[in-house]
Amino acid sequence: MNPLAYYELQAAHSLFGKAAGALEAGEARKVRAVAERYAEIEAAVLGSAEARGVCLQPEAIDDAFEEIRARYEDPAAFDDALDDAGLRHGDLRTALGRSLLVEAVMARVGARVPPVGETEAEIFYYTHLERFRSPETRTARHILITINDTLADNRREAAERRIGEIARRLAARPARFGEQAMKHSECPTALNGGLLGDMPRGQLYPELEAVLFALREGEVSAPVESELGFHVLLCERIHAERTLPWAEVAESLRTRLTEERSRRETRLWLQGLMATATVS
């Protein structure tokens, strides 16, 4: 087996979405360079003191094998891709085992760092409060009537008339919005009473966003047109911009900071390992 075959298979897929045998000359050179670097890293990591005693769960290789096989339309396409790369099933399993061991060693190195404590995380929080601001959002519902000249009820004039009638009914009785959405809306959200969810700015079509963020809480809009068709919007609730309180973010922040510290430790360890290997 070509010792680079596995990494060439993986690099060809991740970089170009192709089988190794389908690469253009320039792509093949790029894949080869990446594969050679990965192979150097693998050799250095598996030869390190930190690799001693690391082992895999029995099902890990099977799961990784199936994950790669699932990329392909059928078993024949999978086997063809392996043939292009110069791999057999057994070769792939062996290479996967080595790759998974590399990941396990890196995880072991990262786990050496102590977890970030509450005091350190709290200091980070109060010195970076701008990162914990939650923008204004609005809980929105909508009713959509599409425009389709091939359907009598959805020709522009008919669709505009229908949405106007719905808007007039809802102006008098906004509490009927969910019922009217389920009865009349042509959007899949109709099944949930037209609920769009909590919408920040930048998520909706500009025409809809401008209308939604001008509504008062509980107010129903006049008809508004987007490229989808005609809409009526309900601003069900306004959630003001706020800074997330420490208690709400404490646990997730400690986890994130610990993960960042772990990745940094792993990166520095690998840089030192590769520098030593280069000198040797």
Automatic annotation (TrEMBL):
Its EC number is 5.2.1.8. GO terms for molecular function: peptidyl-prolyl cis-trans isomerase activity. The keyword NAD does not apply. Residues 135-237 form the PpiC domain. Keywords: Isomerase, Rotamase. The keyword Nucleotidyltransferase does not apply. PANTHER family: PEPTIDYL-PROLYL CIS-TRANS ISOMERASE HP_0175-RELATED, PEPTIDYLPROLYL ISOMERASE. Belongs to the PpiC/parvulin rotamase family. This is peptidylprolyl isomerase.
